[in-house]
Amino acid sequence: MKEIKILDMGCPKCKATLQVVEEVAKENEFSGTIEKIEDIASIISYGVMSTPAVIIDGQIAFVGGVPSKEQVEMWFQKNNTCSCCCSK
Length: 88
Prior knowledge:
alpha+beta, Glutaredoxin, 4-stranded mixed β-sheet, 3 helices, 4 strands, disordered C terminus
């Protein structure tokens, strides 16, 4: 996992999603990037019609609502493998 994007329209759920992702990223010593996307055209370009949404390495990981800390932790655990053989 190298890049996380939070599709965010500024609502309380979007802010909470960003907060939980940043918290878990820090706990997991994430060295990639976390970017907040607020531009509606950019959000729509992902095929997402509701926010918040989480995009991990270009793939939609979560849409709508606020993911639990446990859900976010699973994303980091799932992606903490090597890219050559373990992630298959």
